[in-house]
Automatic annotation (TrEMBL):
InterPro entries: Pol/histidinol_Pase-like, TAT_signal. This is Phosphoesterase. It comes from the Bacteria. SUPFAM superfamilies: PHP domain-like.
């Protein structure tokens, strides 16, 4: 997208960003399907629309607790105004975004009285980006989570209620009784009781893990307890956390200092047959996303990319607040880093019936149950935020059995999950702008799910990350399509 197309001059973008011109010089094209929908004037049609639900603004600040009430100071942790994030999100091809600022003592009033009016102004200034209201919730007993509020007239009131009652750091003085697993479950049940139901997604879920399968603040048991309490509210975790630019300044990708990410993805997602597959193997509708967690851009000494510059979460939705939230809730999601691809469809079909990502295909036990999988993807028609034109080297089809709830609430493996097929460039054919792969899963006798990943590398499994450039290690992941045998 050129600066002219974005509606802002180069000088305006640099001014609003408050950074060097190099950041805005390499803005990539919008994802192909979203661009096509827009060019046809069909913004009300469903298309793959890129977004980011974990972005920080200057309202991620600090509190002087020597005063009562505490005094809030903007810009201590993240530095950009809300509107700057929206401008840069638009510049890098996002059509929806969400500022998720940190909480703190009495921060619920800061959100209500200071940040929310700025969000309303940003919505007017950058209407092309749907900007959700919410925060990075200081979750009882756990690490941070997205708390995304549906767009409605009382959105500010709803966030104030949930933050003031349940955010573990909002009370002043601190109230230890807020920081328990029981309070976490109470928070989710309260959120689910509202007609306008929020969405809750775990952030950087294994950042505090000390080893592979040795978890920190977030544990398999807690994910299950939360999803059991509010399955239509607590819906997943970040597959690819933010802070991906860390290695460009000598740090770890994602800020994962104790145990690394793998190809930029959290171990809970990246390990085939790991925790994500364990949850999917129970039949849970548990989804992954990819975010920037933008605080300070790496060119200013931070560890972050701009919203959409490196990581994107695509949802199949109309350009409409409610439909985007429905897409997140229903798992119509795929994720990508470095704009390796701009469109992805995974379809399972049997005897004229079909299902896509996040959906269920039901097949009859009485018939021969061969399930056809079609993978259709589109490479970037332009350059990414690093000025590269990346290429997909391999696509993997991953299949696991659905066997019911695990007896062990701490289970983090699914032994049935395998890479059933690997495809190189000679294995797919071109259909217009798309590449197409077809594969048949033979004799399906029990419930299963299928998901897809792809990479720009030659790694059979994503390797533990070091200080390599994140631009040289790109991956995409789909959420699953389910097959039920009845």
């Amino acid at each position: 997208m050129s600066n002219a197309e974005s509606g802002y001059s180069r000088r305006q973008l640099v001014k609003y960003a408050g950074v060097g011109a190099t950041i805005v010089a390499a803005a990539p094209l919008i994802g192909a399907t979203a661009a096509e929908a827009t060019s046809k004037g069909s913004s009300n049609a469903r298309a793959w629309r890129a977004g980011d639900h974990h972005i920080h603004s200057e309202y991620s600040g600090e509190f002087d607790t020597s005063t009562n009430p505490p005094t809030f100071h903007k810009g201590a942790d993240a530095v950009y105004p809300i509107v700057t994030n929206a401008i840069m999100a638009k510049n890098f091809g996002l059509t929806w975004a969400m500022c998720t600022d940190h909480g703190g003592p009495t921060h619920s009033k800061v959100n209500l009285e200071q940040a929310y009016p700025d969000l309303l102004r940003s919505r007017k200034l950058v209407p092309e980006v749907l900007q959700f209201w919410g925060m990075e919730f200081d979750t009882p007993q756990m690490d941070h989570h997205t708390l995304m509020i549906p767009r409605h007239d009382d959105e500010a009131k709803l966030l104030f209620e949930l933050e003031s009652r349940f955010n573990k750091f909002d009370a002043f003085p601190t109230d230890p009784s807020r920081d328990t697993e029981a309070k976490f479950v109470e928070f989710l049940k309260s959120a689910a009781s509202h007609r306008q139901k929020p969405i809750v997604i775990a952030h950087h879920a294994a950042r505090s893990a000390s080893g592979l399968g040795v978890y920190g603040q977030d544990t398999p048991r807690e994910f299950r307890a939360g999803n059991n309490a509010a399955p239509d509210v607590y819906i997943g975790f970040e597959g690819a956390p933010g802070h991906q630019a860390g290695p460009l300044n000598g740090g770890a990708r994602g800020g994962y200092g104790s145990h690394p990410t793998y190809g930029g993805f959290d171990q809970m997602t990246a390990r085939v047959g790991g925790l994500w597959d364990s949850l999917l193997g129970e039949g849970r509708k548990w989804w992954i996303t990819a975010t920037s967690d933008s605080h300070v851009h790496w060119t200013r000494g931070g560890s972050d990319f701009w919203p959409g510059e490196y990581s994107k979460t695509y949802v199949y939705a109309r350009q409409d607040y409610a439909d985007i939230m429905d897409a997140l809730r229903d798992g119509r999601i795929w994720v990508v880093t470095g704009d390796l691809i701009s469109a992805l469809d995974v379809t399972a079909s049997n005897r004229g019936k079909s299902a896509n990502v996040g959906e269920e295909l039901t097949v009859s036990r009485r018939n021969r149950n061969d399930v056809d999988i079609e993978i259709r993807f589109r490479e970037l028609q332009g350059v990414n935020g690093n000025g590269d034109r990346p290429a997909v080297r391999r696509v993997d089809l991953i299949v696991g059995r659905i066997t019911g709830l695990a007896a062990d609430v701490n289970a983090d493996t699914n032994a049935t999950t395998k890479v059933v097929a690997r495809f190189g460039r000679s294995d797919w054919h071109r259909d217009g702008k798309d590449f197409v792969i077809k594969h048949t899963i033979k004799n399906v006798e029990g419930d299963l799910y299928a998901r897809v990943r792809g990479t720009s590398t030659d790694e059979l499994e994503p390797a533990a990350d070091g200080l390599e450039s994140p631009w040289d290690d790109l991956w995409f992941y789909s959420n699953p399509v389910f097959v039920n045998v009845r």
